């Protein structure tokens, strides 16, 4: 191909000149095409790999040089001699003579370069080639990647790195290629080639390791091997990208959203050196956006546009604070360089003015931002102020939300007055014109405010002292808001954190939860969303709503707010609305406890958005069906316990206590294990600081009970120790009367533990374990997420195998290997798509039963069929029709997908069935071609509540394969073709062909006899004609039918029908049964020729004494459709030929077929690998 001219300093180094003229030179890479060209060729090949030379892809090139110049220009390169020769001939015919008329060498060079660039531009225009952001060097890497590993175009390369791969104690220098779905390595050193391909979805552990020998290494572990890579130029960049790609793969296993690549990621807006691929930059932008959203608790669809260093003027202490400004589509955020010193969030919906202020020595390059609540923020020391102001102005123009103005209410009295969403959804007397929010039923009271304000009870004897302390807290917060700002735009400082740790006042708790969790932002940008969701979910019933109804009265039953219909109805609406918003989660136990507490301090809509923030951002994946997030954090907690309380860790592991306590503590944020008035203080801290508070508190509880736990003899005693301690945690500042704690009522059978003040406990957790950082927790979460999800996948595999192992003759190991192949075929189709009509991402639903989680369509089945099924013809074109018939036979519910159980049911018959079962299966596949459907089977599959076992399914198949299901002539022709294709390349090929010819001749004679007489209709299956307006033909009986007094037969099962979509046969003769391609010798052909005409004189040989008394025979008048044979005839005919009997009784080597399937690397139509490829060494 033509390339943009580039200078070459040394034309002869490592290249051989094959052709030359005064201006152009055609060269070939040394060692190419001649067995690596001896030692010199081996060295050149090694250098090409190590240095990532483009000659690996294009071993031919054409150089341009003027006679008096020492500088060469490469203008074309090629993968083959044919390609480069075409370019050379074009130059000689069209350019060489033209160059001789120029007098100036500079003019010649300019002309040649312009001509080549014009050719490239014309080619791109004619072939609709769009210029992308990838460099030519990276495009060469993509070509190398696809060529080396056989990857299709759908597999996108993200980046590649030079490194060493350790095979044993020998390092192999080469290149590591990271694509969206695979990690690949290639090395070529002195004739020895090494390749490695690992699917990201198969990685169980990914970590950086450091030893004396390998100070910077990355260890990649799968279920079968460990791989170590080292000598990276930038190991941190490489490892971060590997983490990100592995995370995407884990998300794909967890749900279908991982397959939906977000193509709307922001590109870099400034001029940036294009040293990496566009996809790599997009993934970097994705990672930065995720960190940005997590840092400032922003909605999950917010995307970072850019960030810059600056200073922020803080009026409360009259200082410039050094930090970073972040700008995104809807927010401007700031965080100080010194952690926790100051952070700021400014929603663009609140901004009124953005302007450049006058520069001075005190405020260099300042930008002033004013908001609607009359706050002004002054940023200075901005390097590119003009560009920044323009970007913010552009985003302001795009901000079309009018939520603030629509929902703004004046004089609400809210301390967070910039949060107008705190206005009531309904008034107590409904007399002020507000819409009464009562979407349930007119007779059911509706909570128009936080439930705590409606059911607050004060204890008279403790009223005054506690109320006074509560009043002081409120005054402290009011003073703080006055000084640091109100609403979302509040300056968040160390003082804010101190106030949170001292406890949030009761009547401010809901507002501050909304603010600190970020739920206020989603609520502001989605007005009316909750109300619409409640309306849509009214009267809808599913599994989630049933579980919600079951748990409603178990949600804080000791609190008076949930001892009446108002609280229960509010809880029902919030949980049901969220189940409809996020059906992937629906409802999970523990959500009811958390939501009930949210409703005590927030209104319904506010509680809903707080629940959204919890489930989707702050506790990701906690409340799905498999509580993956909680299991991940359980693993993180174990790591933290090993690091911070090592003397206790081994004891707790032996007792198995950590896994027990962590789920109950984390899922309910201690609400289910602590007294209510104490647990809400934990929730206060959680909404401000995030999950690190829960880890700190859990570690502190263990540390406080270390001596008792070390002396515990079993897990029961350890749980009792922890239970008593948590029951004793008290909140002496609470103005609420003591609420009986259900957990303490159940466990209080001994002396109570001394009281523990909740505020001292929280403060102590910060002092002892406050060094835990959020970014460290995220790194630990990644490590544990790999382990948890792969453990879930292994559990799923074991459950599937355990379910069907008793229903088939396959061993457990064979079933596990087959399951891995089945799953890998599905994932491959999800990676690269397919030509089938079904969407692969819709076939994997982790919420379904184990056997239904992975399903494949016809396209994926064809790949497995050719690799695993003994009857698959060697010729792919011949295998497709048989695979189609087999697939439709296995798809008994008619959804065009088969699950693992159905897949094994068919393979089991072929590998372990006896002769009769195999022949019945072969016969049935041709009785039901195309769109034939057995209504009985489909009804059982759709309407039956129980899932058919494999044995039942096979029995049902064999029941349908009754002898009354006759094989029509067109179907018989297809059966003969199948038999001939099956025997291709068999050791007994000729004998099998002769036997088939004999059996075919015999069956043809039987079919001709059947044309003379046919059985009176009334049987099990009804066959429909294909002609338009054609009447239904009557079906043949399932067995011997008895006649009633009117001489008609009674059907045993009249509701079973069989639809025939095969074309009508019009005069098809038996000479059409075989083509020249199928003819293997003269004998088989002559066998067909003898019966080419068919005998019509056989009716004279048919005597009445041969006919049963019960059977009514009539002369056929319907033509070729009456030509048919039954299964008994087919079976009897096959049994007459020993060669066919031996073929169908031949044992199948299942293990060999599985091994072969795992090693096949046909990309796109077959499997890559069940786990990771073996290292292939050559030479």
Automatic annotation (TrEMBL):
Lineage, top ranks: Eukaryota, Metazoa, Chordata, Craniata, Vertebrata
GO molecular function: calcium ion binding; GTPase activator activity
CDD domains hit by this protein: PH-GRAM1_TCB1D9_TCB1D9B, PH-GRAM2_TCB1D9_TCB1D9B
Bias-annotated ranges (Basic and acidic residues): 1054-1063
UniProtKB keywords: GTPase activation, Repeat
One Gene Ontology biological process: system process
Rab-GAP TBC domain mapped to chain residues: 503-690
Name of the molecule in the record: TBC1 domain family member 9
Biased composition (Polar residues): 1064-1073
Superkingdom of origin: Eukaryota
SMART domains registered for this protein in UniProt: GRAM, TBC
Pfam families: GRAM, RabGAP-TBC
Compositional bias (Low complexity): 411-430
Cited Gene3D superfamilies: EF-hand, Pleckstrin-homology domain (PH domain)/Phosphotyrosine-binding domain (PTB), putative rabgap domain of human tbc1 domain family member 14 like domains, Ypt/Rab-GAP domain of gyp1p, domain 1, Ypt/Rab-GAP domain of gyp1p, domain 3
General function of this protein: May act as a GTPase-activating protein for Rab family protein(s).
PANTHER family (UniProt xref): PROTEIN VASCULAR ASSOCIATED DEATH 1, CHLOROPLASTIC, TBC1 DOMAIN FAMILY MEMBER 9
